[in-house]
Amino acid sequence: MTTTIDFDIDGPAAPPRSNGELVFEEPWQSRAFGLVMSLHESGAFTWEEFRAELISAIAAWEEQETPSEEYSYYQCWVTALEQVTVHNELVTTDDLAGRARDLALRPAGHDHDHDHDHDHDHDH
Q: Which fold has domain 17-63+70-105?
């Protein structure tokens, strides 16, 4: 089954594009994009639910008097993903906080695939 999603082309939730193609500056951005698409296609939430959360996340960033960091569309995307999954009871805020903490404690570059000397395999 193929699902068609009506992306905002010029609207408030429009993803970054170059020559009509989606632009991802970092690998995590394409992963976050894919995760949202997969969850939506599996019926975890509607596109409109996600889009509303994304618009809300972008608006919240824009309303900051002094933004704490440079604008990142995909950081807003992740915020929207967190909100829609909590709202639809796929995870709890405690689950998200715990997972974020666990990931933050992992060594930098943990998700890599090359030969090196330590006692585990990389079965990717």
A: Cyclin A; domain 1 (1.10.472)
Query: Domain segments of the chain: what residues?
Result: 17-63+70-105
Q: Please give the structure tokens belonging to residue 73.
A: 């569309």
47-91 confidence digits (pLDDT tens): 999 999 999 999 999 888 776 778 889 999 999 999 999 999 999
Q: Where are the alpha helices (H) located in the chain, listed in sequence order? A: 27-41, 47-62, 73-87, 93-105
Amino acid at 91: V
pLDDT tens column, 8-51: 556 667 788 888 888 899 999 999 999 999 999 999 999 999 99
Query: Measured between alpha carbons, how far is 112 from 22 in angstroms, rounded to an integer?
Result: 24
CB of 53 closer than 8 Å to CB of 12: no
Partner residues linked to 22 by β-bridges: 17
CB 39 within 8 A of CB 88: no
